[in-house]
Amino acid sequence: MQLELKPANKLTYKLRLTPQMRLDISLLQMPMVKLQEYVKQQVEENPLLEIDPHTNWDIPDVKSTIGVGVNEDEEAKQNYRESLITKSATLSDHLLNQLHLFASSDEERKIGEVIIANIDDNGYLMSSIEKIAESAQAVPSQVQKVLSLVQTFDPVGVGARDLRECLLLQINPVRNTTQMDANTIVSNGVKAKGQENSLAGQVIDKYLHYLEKKRFEFIAKKLKVPVERIKEAIKEIANLEPKPGRSFNTERAVRLIPDAILERNNDKYEVMLNDWELPSLNLNPKYKRMLNQKGITEDTKKYLKERLEAAKFLINAINKRKETIQKVTEAIVYIQKDFLDGMYTPTPIELKKNTATTIGVGASLKPMTLSQIAKLVSKHKSTVSRTVSNKYLQTPDGIFELRHFLNSGIKQENGEFYSSKAIKSKIKELIENEDKKNPLTDQEIVNLLKQDGISVSRRVIAKYRHQLKILPSQSRQE
């Protein structure tokens, strides 16, 4: 048999990002504060860009306007700025705001307040589970459960007990796609969903000590991957925040700037973009006219054309960012209406089967995924993921990141949904009340849940039990 080499044509498709697409993606990922800085820099560097003269971007400081006669619009801006300052003054205040919304009972709130009181300015938990349990008059398992909830709060990585745990809380891929389940984070070995497939997660989990000593080849050998991949993982780790609370550790109050504001009129919700924090941009007419003038050099004309194109790209990207945030936020509000109603309702709302899980008094989160939102807004899942990350919605109960409103779930045969949190809560309750001499097997838990109308596989039970850090039945027997 003789082998013969012949030239052959092969048609392949490869997506190439245009400069406009790259800028669209970059701006969509930016939080408001970073976007403000970027726009300011671009206006200073690009003569073709100018701020709309009707835009009051540099709003006077709140204190300087107190007692001065202002119109209704200025007064509204003043009240808005005051609300941001009071709601986000310290790391502790910011965490307490989230706790009061997402805790499911007064007991959880009490334990959570003790936990937050023991978190230092850098965002680390400085006390043990046992000591917190003693202070809160609770059992350690309850404290661990609430700590797991606190560790899902913003800023990402807060509530960790050491650097390794802090970085692992941030490296979890789920944080970019959906709200991290409070029970996926466990003590003494944080293992989040999907993390075992993350090279950066493996490096942090097993070889952080060697990483500090820059023993990259040793780590690569242990993980059986090329050194280049270890270096790529290190770049990802370098972008993590080792002190997640330090952005709040300033002498002045720290403001969380919402990208959108939620208002309710006659039981209907309206999402308004926060245009007060970002200026409207125009093309400078003077420099546009110069392009058509005679006598300018080719170099000048080339420069002006490049600046004009860059200015148009920026204006288009900002408009696309606004449009995407508006659509995604409206979709979230549409799906989570019951949850949002709880913010306006003084008495608890009776939960239905498909409302998934109780997060706060009178509030419930329905199962809602990135794919579900993407379908509603006709956007790619990755676009929705970028939109919900580091974007904030101002509500009556405070300012919250959009990702907090996401919640995974399992669809039943009758079309109803149960959230993973609700199912885990059921599993935990069943195991806590089981006969310790004859503990429940995973299959028995499947059967008991089926009696309650919840249909899940034994594999899912085993997965959730592992995430809850609950041992198999044979290991629980007393």
Mass-distribution shape: globular
How much of the sequence lies in strands comes to 5-15%
Q: Give the beta-strand count.
A: 10
Cα gyration radius (Å): 26 Å
For the termini, the CA-CA separation is 69 Å
Spans with pLDDT under 50 lasting ≥5 residues?
A: 59-72, 173-196, 346-363
- Mean pLDDT, to the nearest integer, reads 77
The main β sheet shows up as: 4 strands, mixed
The spatial strand order of the largest sheet comes to 3-2-7-8
Please estimate the helix content. Answer: 40-55%
| Overall SS class | alpha+beta
Alpha plus pi helix count: 21
Please describe what this structure looks like.
The protein has 478 residues and is of the alpha+beta class. Among the domains are: 91-248, no CATH class; 409-476, Arc Repressor Mutant, subunit A (Orthogonal Bundle), CATH 1.10.10.60. The protein has helices at residues 19-29, 32-45, 62-65, 72-87, 91-102, 106-117, 129-136, 140-150, 163-171, 199-212, 216-223, 227-238, 285-290, 298-335, 337-344, 370-377, 381-388, 420-432, 442-451, 458-467, 473-476, and strands at 49-51, 260-265, 268-273, 281-283, 357-360, 363-365, 392-395, 398-401, 409-411, 417-419. Helix 19 packs across helix 20 (458-467). The chain is globular, with a radius of gyration of 26 Å. It starts with 18 loop residues before the first helix and ends with a helix.
